[in-house]
Amino acid sequence: MVHLCAWIVAVALAQFIEPFWPGLLLIQGFAAGIISLLARLPVWWRWINLLFFPLIGFAQQLAIAPAWYLLALALLLLTQFGALRSRVPLYLSSQRAKAELTRLLPAQPGLQLLDVGSGLGGLLAHLAQARPDLKLSGIESAPLLWLLSRLRLGRRADIRFGDLWQTDLSSYDVVYAFLSPEPMARLWDKTRREMKPGSLFISNSFAVPGVPPDAEVELDDLHRGRLLIWRLS
């Protein structure tokens, strides 16, 4: 949607551009960056949207072998495969989010925590060091991210490759998610059905539609994020 709006702006201004094609791409990129800023997207998405089409235009001027484009596509699929179905991009939890989550977790030895969409395993690596008493798990649907996080964490966490919707949540005391607005209503229904009373569902930044959290912690990080906390009953 960001790029579609940016293209509308660029085409509207095309009559004033000389030379046409490079200038059109630059205006599209600038418009996409401004729209991303106004939409308060994370910083890295602002840069991606700003540079995406201008870099494509620049790459067309270079003598790059087609095999490199195929390799880039393969890497994109290996890291963002799950996003094609779930509409959940890769978000990385900030250091502030990791610290606040560590502070919020109950002092319960053997507490079982699941990171939904565990990505590169940064959150679980932090918790494994800060709270070695925890039993940590992650679920990841992107093959390369799953492999890298498995290698990173070793036996400190159980990182599984698979589908969130096929994962039973009943054994977990805490479920943490940093996803997108798209799956939140469905995920809330799943947590209510499967998680035991007294367990915690914690979402980074994204709310459950129509369900206010029991507690909220502002993070003041680059995402302008917050931890939204629900206690299951």
Written overview of the protein:
- This is Methyltransferase.
- By secondary structure, this protein is α/β, with parallel strands linked by helices.
- The protein folds into 2 domains: 2-63, no CATH class; 95-231, Vaccinia Virus protein VP39 (Rossmann fold).
- Helix content is 47%, strand content 15%.
- The protein is built from 8 helices and 7 strands, in the order H-H-H-H-H-E-H-E-H-E-E-H-E-E-E.
- It has helices at residues 2-12, 20-38, 43-60, 66-86, 95-104, 122-130, 143-153, 184-194; strands at 112-116, 135-140, 158-161, 174-177, 200-204, 215-218, 226-231.
- Strands 3-2-1-4-5-7-6 form a 7-stranded mixed sheet, covered by helices on one side.
- Strand 4, helix 8 and strand 5 form a beta-alpha-beta unit.
- Helix 1 (2-12) packs across helix 2 (20-38).
Keywords:
alpha/beta; protein-lysine N-methyltransferase activity; 7-stranded mixed beta sheet; single chain; SAM-dependent_MTases_sf; Rossmann fold; Methyltransferase; 2 domains; methyltransferase; 233 residues; elongated; 8 helices; transferase; 47% helix
Question: In brief, what are we looking at here?
Answer:
The protein is of the alpha/beta class and 233 residues long. The chain is 47% helix and 15% strand. The chain folds into two domains: 62 residues, no CATH class; 137 residues, Vaccinia Virus protein VP39 (Rossmann fold, 3-Layer(aba) Sandwich).
